[in-house]
Amino acid sequence: MTTSSAPVDGAADALQVLRNRTFDEIAIGDSASLERAFSPQDIQMFALQSGDDVDPESSVSSPSRDTTEAICANVLISAVLGTRLPGPGTLHVSQNLRFLGAIRPGDRLTVRVQVTSKDTATRRITLACACTNQEDAAVFQGQVEVAAPTERIERTRTALPEIHPDAQGHTGLQRLLAHVAHLQPIRVAVAHPCDAPSLSAALEARHAGLIEPVLVGSRARLEAVATEAGLDLADVTIVDTPHSHAAAQQAVALAANGEVEALMKGSLHTDELMSALVSTAAGLRTKRRVSHCFLLQTPAYPRPFIVTDAAINIAPTLEQKADIIRNAIELAQVIGVREPKVAILAAVETVSPTMTATLDAAALCKMADRGQITGGLLDGPLAFDNAISIAAARTKGIVSEVAGQADILVVPDLESGNMLAKQLIFLGGAASAGIVLGAKVPVILTSRADSRDTRIASCAIALMLAHHYRLSPP
Q1: Residue 190 phi/psi, 5° resolution?
Q2: Boundaries of each Phosphate acetyl/butaryl transferase domain copy (predicted)?
């Protein structure tokens, strides 16, 4: 939860020092404000305190969520009273609030208080309070009575620890596994899993009930890796191949023959597996271009989203970008987003003849208007900030159903997409999964640096896609 407001003393605020204003220093009409952005984790924490059953990705306001909403309001009011006006030493006496609107993850709320009366006998102050969101819509309003401090107080702001509600077990991966628990595991050809991370990932996905792995690689190497890592290969099917190149070809052949419903990259290079997959002789190509999707969830955004293509297509053409979008829309729909909002990214949000990414974005949107791309709402060009922030979009005067609410981020090229995805994962704390679409079977494509959770989540996504392909073959 981030905070910004106009400090009483700019220099003091820069030094993280809080100073109050005493009863005698406060005049009727004095005011203060504070702004905070609420993440799904903030709302989840309030729900834990109140005991409400609140989905952290939905709005707080509903008949069953009054307590959680009240906690949100109290946090905002207490923050501005305790740090701004009157400041440290303030005693909260009473309040009367009326709730007018919902609080949603990602909302940036501004609470304002203004002194309306002073009682010299009791040293109490009454303040009108009002809260609005980033769209200037009222969230709550009312009044609060406080006992103002009589002496000056100055103290250093306390450094608070970070709290992560998901650390208690409610992780995105666990929710994903619960979502696919009713699906039967699929047979997956794992190409050359000849190191401990890739072999253990396949076996852990099996243990999680997601896949039945068919290990395609050198039996001797697989058994040696298993022995060294303490892994059990009992009852696991192994297709013996002499080297990684042969493993890729054999894994693809198993998929083409219908013996497996998905492919999974082991410790071989990505281009080895993808070259075998897209070969005309392999029989796994469809009318669409093959592309990669990162499915990401970060604490700073209220829902999962897709970044594409950050792994396969280096510098896609307009036609290839259209297929990349079609693949991403299909994935979004499979995971439950009925009409995904697609933001086509560029460095700027206006069309420039000298910037190819903006021209492609405009053309792709027109293709959607003409029915050449269906199933999603497209807008672009959009810069990253106004693609994921409603406030940023409003500041720039962008009126769009997609801006600030994107489910899919389409990057101009592989380099920008790869950097964006890895920044989100390694600096932004995003959970991730990686999958390749556009072939007749999904391909679980992960990096050697990926975590166990990423590999398991990728298998869960492949499971959903494989079951979808049974009903709607690509």
Answers
A1: -100, 110
A2: 248-462
CATH of the structural domain 17-51+61-156, one choice from 1.20.1050.10, 3.30.390.10, 3.10.129.10, 3.30.10.20: 3.10.129.10
Amino acid at 474: P
Distance CA 362, CA 392 (A): 20
DSSP 8-class letter at 337: -
Distance CA 80, CA 86 (A): 8
Running DSSP on this structure, what letter comes out for residue 285?
A: B
Sorting pLDDT into bands at 50, 70 and 90, what band is 298? confident
434 within 8 A of 458, measured Cβ to Cβ: yes
Does domain 288-438 bear CATH number 3.40.718.10? yes
**Which amino acid is it at 312?**
I
Confidence check: pLDDT of 285 > 60: yes
Assess contact for 271 and 436: CB atoms under 8 A.
no
- Taking CA atoms, 79 is separated from 139, 368, 384, 439, in Å, by 17, 46, 31, 53
